[in-house]
Specification:
216 residues, four-stranded mixed β-sheet, binds glutathione, alpha+beta, single chain
């Protein structure tokens, strides 16, 4: 296998980068990292050195370029031979909740940008934001209740679903989302995770600030 290079954005703000990075770490796939500073005049051309998409994350493996977090997760699962739940019903649900995350929750994404190192931020709760929070709480409860008995993650073992929702946990933590007890337990597992802690430590060291993502 050609060595892997994961191109990511600022750890503090790049939620899509975090998803791919978390999965590679949890699947024990070795990779080099390239960090590209977001929101600068050269960001797009800096990313285009690695992939014409102009967005991060990007996974390079020799001449192969894989872009978009979900496609990277799928490729990583193929390399590792694990990462989706083994049972077909659980796998279908995992894919559904990943797709829902990847294409949905616009109110949450707009109102509460990921800001990994920020704490105790507060914003007004709009009905759309509350609906997104409630739906995510429901997803976490359903996954854990139906498929989570084998471990602390949404489907027991760590899967793509946990990687896809990791930035949501950080957002809920930063902006103080009110969620159910089961959701709080799930958030605690995510926040204690060694890989996530490593990401947070690195985010704290970054000197960059993106004013538009400093909310609350
Ligand atoms: N759908 C893409 C979204 C990627 C994306 O929007 N990435 C942002 C950073 S989190 C980006 O590259 N922004 C660069 C820019 O705005 O110039 C994915 O899932 O990877």
């Amino acid at each position: 296998m050609a060595p892997l290079t994961l191109v990511i954005g600022n750890r503090n703000y790049s939620s899509w980068s975090l998803r791919a990075w978390m999965l590679l770490r949890h699947l024990d796939l070795p990779f080099e990292e390239v960090v590209i500073q977001l929101d600068t005049p050269t960001t797009r051309e800096d990313i285009e050195c690695y992939c014409p998409s102009g967005r991060v994350p990007v996974l390079r493996a020799g001449s192969l370029c894989v872009w978009d977090s979900l496609a990277i997760c799928e490729y990583a699962v193929e390399l590792a031979g694990r990462g989706w739940p083994a049972a077909s019903e659980a796998r279908a649900m995992a894919r559904s909740v990943c797709a829902e995350m990847h294409s949905g929750f616009p109110a949450l994404r707009t109102a509460w940008p990921m800001n990994a190192r920020a704490r105790n931020r507060r914003t007004a709760l709009t009905p759309a934001l509350e609906a997104d929070i409630e739906r995510i709480d429901e997803i976490w409860n359903d996954c854990r209740r139906h498929h989570g008995s084998g471990g602390p993650w949404l489907f027991g073992d760590y899967s793509v679903a946990d990687a896809m929702y990791a930035p949501v946990v950080l957002r809920f933590n930063t902006y103080g989302a009110r969620v159910s007890e089961a959701a709080r337990w799930y958030m605690a597992s995510v926040l204690e995770d060694a890989a996530l802690q490593e990401w947070l430590q690195a985010a704290k060291q970054e000197p960059w600030t993106i004013p538009g993502d400093e909310v609350g």
